[in-house]
Every structure is written in structure tokens, then in C-alpha cells.
Design a protein that fits this description.
Elements: E1 29-33, H1 40-50, E2 55-56, E3 60-61, E4 76-77, H2 80-88, E5 92-97, E6 103-107, H3 108-116, E7 121-124, H4 127-136, E8 141-146, H5 150-160, H6 165-180, E9 187-190, H7 194-205
Parallel strand pairs: 1-7, 1-8, 2-7, 3-4, 8-9
Antiparallel strand pairs: 3-6, 5-6
């Protein structure tokens, strides 16, 4: 993996998943995905804190909160019954089981409201979810957030100390699959440093010359 930032436009992107296409957005939707521990959440939080003009989606999940996570800010923490109810009612734009464990999903209505209001919107989701959104909102820009190297990805996962050894092994195995999906995305950004990465994503959000 190269150590220099990449922005590879126009890559092939299969329309995985099913469902009816959503109306074309009135403002740009950027879908950010990448392997576990690459820093998606940290970059998204930085954009939320420093670029209030950008609407950042808050995912729903059935996993337990980590230390310091706040319901409604970092995630909407739901039990299985509530998640099932929202799935049955068609409230999710996408949802998936991640790391063979908890379910994650993006609620449809808040995304459509933000775009209809003309706000640039950022979805930080997993690979399975990105494929579902691709099928339903193909005009969005899909960005793959990559680590500088595999060794750095492992260091970040171990260093954050939020998973036990078994969970780390499961996430690293998943990360290998996620890294192999990079060619499906429109643009790749390497996450060397949070502020630099956030600037690159903001540029993509406001740059009409970068097409999905």
C-alpha cells in the first residue's frame, strides 16, 4: 500500500444489494467506508465538530457502548427488538451485521431531510452498508478510507484497547476482506492524519468536478 494519499476517480463500482432507488439528492452525499480501526469515526467526529455546515449521520447499532460514547451523538444504541421493528417498517437506508456480531444501520429519513434542505451530508458506514447505499443512491460519492499500511492498521486497533484478543482477531480478519473492496469505490483517501483527511473529504463534498 502506498504511503502517499490517493484519489483514484472513476473506478468500477458494482451495484451490490437491492431495493428501490431513492430520489436524486439536491446536495452531495458522501459515503465514507473502510476497514475497521482505520479512523472513520475519528475523522467523522472531527468534521462534525469543525464543519457544522456538513450534516453527519449518526448510525444505529445493537452493540454495547464503548467508554465515553454517548447515545444519539456517537451512535443510536438500540436493543434487538427495536432494531427489528425499524427493519420491518423499512426505516433503514442500509443495515448489516458487522464483524459477525452486532447490527449497524443508517436511518433513511434524516439523510433525505438533510439532502432536501441542501446540506452536504456524510455517511460513515461499513462496507456492506456502502454497497446497499450504492444500489439505492448511485449518485452519491463513495470514498474508501485506507490506512497508510497494514502494520499501522494493526497498531491502531491494538492501541485503542476497546476489544479483547478474540474480538481483535475477528476484526483483523474482516479488515482483510474490507481492504480488498477498495476498487469498488470512486475515490481513495489515505488516513495519515485526521485534520488532513478531513480537509480532503470537505474538498470532495464541495467539489462538483469530482464525479461519482
Amino acid at each position: 500500500m502506498s504511503d502517499s494519499p490517493r484519489a483514484d476517480h472513476g473506478r468500477g463500482a458494482p451495484a451490490a444489494g437491492g431495493g428501490t432507488s431513492e430520489p436524486a439528492p439536491q446536495s452531495r452525499l458522501l459515503v465514507l467506508a473502510g476497514p475497521t480501526a482505520v479512523g472513520k469515526g475519528t475523522v467523522s467526529a472531527y468534521i462534525r465538530d469543525h464543519h457544522p455546515d456538513v450534516w453527519v449521520s449518526v448510525s444505529a447499532t445493537t452493540r454495547r457502548p464503548r467508554p465515553g460514547e454517548v447515545d444519539g451523538v456517537h451512535y443510536h444504541f438500540l436493543d434487538d427488538a427495536e432494531f427489528d421493528r425499524l427493519v420491518e417498517q423499512g426505516e433503514f437506508l442500509e443495515w448489516a451485521v458487522v464483524h459477525s456480531a452486532a447490527r449497524y444501520g443508517t436511518l433513511r429519513a434524516p439523510v433525505l431531510r438533510a439532502l432536501a434542505a441542501g446540506r452536504p451530508a456524510l455517511l460513515e458506514i461499513d462496507l456492506q452498508g456502502a454497497r446497499q447505499v450504492r444500489a439505492r443512491m448511485p449518485d452519491a460519492l463513495f470514498v474508501f478510507l485506507a490506512p497508510p499500511s497494514w502494520e499501522e492498521l494493526v497498531r491502531r486497533l491494538v492501541g485503542r484497547g476497546t476489544e479483547d484478543e478474540a474480538e481483535r482477531a475477528r476484526r483483523l480478519q474482516t479488515a482483510k476482506v474490507e481492504l480488498a473492496a477498495e476498487p469498488e469505490f470512486d475515490v481513495t483517501v489515505v488516513n495519515h492524519e485526521v485534520r488532513q483527511t478531513a480537509r480532503q473529504l470537505i474538498t470532495l463534498l464541495y467539489s462538483p468536478s469530482v464525479q461519482a
